[in-house]
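Consider the tokenized backbone below.
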């Protein structure tokens, strides 16, 4: 039986994550309306999830997936460099990070959702279904 990595939840960032949820950007709110409540292929997403020393915009444990939305500030070199470090640290844990510009979410949601769904389809193709492990295929 394969074991999943435990993703280090950081309780010290819980209040900050709550504050960020209560002050979400328009793009975050719009994407949340599409992914909450297992709307995307029946997977459970969380928003503003504290992982390591970071808070990720959206996270799905079952998919090892982080979704980050990049607003205007992400164009600045300092923020961009922090994003690279964050991505590297999260990828070292076996997570995949999908990034979308706020503009893309606001103006082209169908393609954002299609990209997420394509990731899920590929993930499912290459990841054994834990509920089927140890069962004989007839």
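A designed sequence for it:
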């Amino acid at each position: 039986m394969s074991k999943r990595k435990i993703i280090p939840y950081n309780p010290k960032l819980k209040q900050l994550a709550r504050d960020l949820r209560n002050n979400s950007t328009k793009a975050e709110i719009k994407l949340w309306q599409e992914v909450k409540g297992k709307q995307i292929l029946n997977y459970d997403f969380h928003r503003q999830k504290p992982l390591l020393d970071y808070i990720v915009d959206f996270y799905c444990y079952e998919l090892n997936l982080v979704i980050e939305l990049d607003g205007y500030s992400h164009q600045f070199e300092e923020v961009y460099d922090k994003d690279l470090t964050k991505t590297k640290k999260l990828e070292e844990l076996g997570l995949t990070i999908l990034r979308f510009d706020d503009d893309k979410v606001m103006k082209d949601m169908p393609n954002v959702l299609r990209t997420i769904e394509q990731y899920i389809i590929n993930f499912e193709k290459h990841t054994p279904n834990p509920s089927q492990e140890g069962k004989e295929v007839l």
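The longest strand covers residues 54-60.
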